[in-house]
Design a protein that fits this description.
The complex is a heterodimer of chains A (116) and B (114). Chain A is an all-beta fold and 116 residues long. Helix content of chain A is 0%, strand content 49%. Chain A has no helices and 11 strands. The radius of gyration of chain A is 13 Å and the shape is globular. Chain B contains no helices and 12 strands. In chain B, the strands form 3 sheets. In chain B, strands 2, 5, 6, 10, 11 and 12 form a 6-stranded mixed sheet that branches. A 4-stranded antiparallel sheet of chain B has the order 3-9-8-7, with no helix packed on it. The model of chain B has no long low-confidence stretch (mean pLDDT 91). In chain B, 0% of the residues lie in helices and 51% in strands. Classes of the chains: A mainly beta (116), B mainly beta (114). At the A-B interface, strand 4, strand 5, strand 9 and strand 10 of A face strand 6, strand 10 and strand 11 of B.
Chain lengths: 116, 114
């Protein structure tokens, strides 16, 4: 069964460093998402991406964050200067349909980001 | 704005006992509702979804959930717990415009005791 793949599974970084979290969505999917879950808290939406541009973003997704689809398969989340509070599990998700029709979001296993 | 509340961050049941995981939602528009499960070191996997058709929704692995508008609830049940059901369960809501971000609850960790 097709799946969303995220790498690395665990990323440790120093405060102030840049990190790039990588995701390979399911190949025929059109909508891509990033969510995060701080330990003990809810899974929160960060950003959605469609047709090579951000379609929606939350207030969490400030100027320190950016997303990119550099080629036909990868979808990345970059944090420019990490803070301690960025430590969380980051989930990538994708769906196969365009606007106006519900489809299921398929999630990756997540990347645990630890900022020291 | 939409929100989800999952009562109980940790639920423990004996093998063979009824599983009941509670979810209440708040939505200003008719909602789509979902239950996802996360097994250790794996992604979030869809268990079942409510999309305004039948109020009793059956999912994978013997789970089902009932949409009750009057109670704004979407509780997840399974008649008989199995050891393999031990996982984290997330309730989520989205609106009817399609492909919008999911709003999740905090999750409930289910432990199954032999």
């Amino acid at each position: 069964e097709p799946e969303v793949t995220q790498t690395p599974s665990h990323q440790v970084t120093q405060m102030g460093q840049e990190v790039i979290l990588r995701c390979v969505p399911i190949s025929n999917h059109l909508y891509f998402y990033w969510y995060r879950q701080i330990l003990g808290q809810k899974v929160e939406f960060l950003v959605s991406f469609y047709n090579n541009e951000i379609s929606e973003k939350s207030e969490i997704f400030d100027d320190q964050f950016s997303v990119e689809r550099p080629d036909g398969s990868n979808f990345t989340l970059k944090i420019r200067s990490t803070k301690l509070e960025d430590s969380a599990m980051y989930f990538c998700a994708s769906t196969s349909r365009g606007q106006g029709k519900l489809d299921i979001q398929y999630f990756g296993a997540g990347t645990r980001l630890s900022v020291l | 704005a939409q929100s989800v509340t999952q009562l109980g961050s940790h639920v423990s049941v004996s093998e063979g006992a009824l599983v009941l995981l509670r979810c209440n939602y708040s939505s200003s528009v008719p909602p789509y509702l979902f239950w996802y499960v996360q097994y250790p070191n794996q992604g979030l996997q869809l268990l079942l979804k409510y999309t305004s058709a039948a109020t009793l929704v059956k999912g994978i692995n013997g789970f089902e959930a009932e949409f009750k508008k009057s109670e704004t609830s979407f509780h997840l049940t399974k008649p008989s717990a199995h050891m393999s059901d031990a996982a984290e369960y997330f309730c989520a809501v989205s609106d009817l415009s399609g492909n919008t971000p999911l709003v999740f609850g905090k999750g409930t960790r289910l432990s199954v005791i032999a």
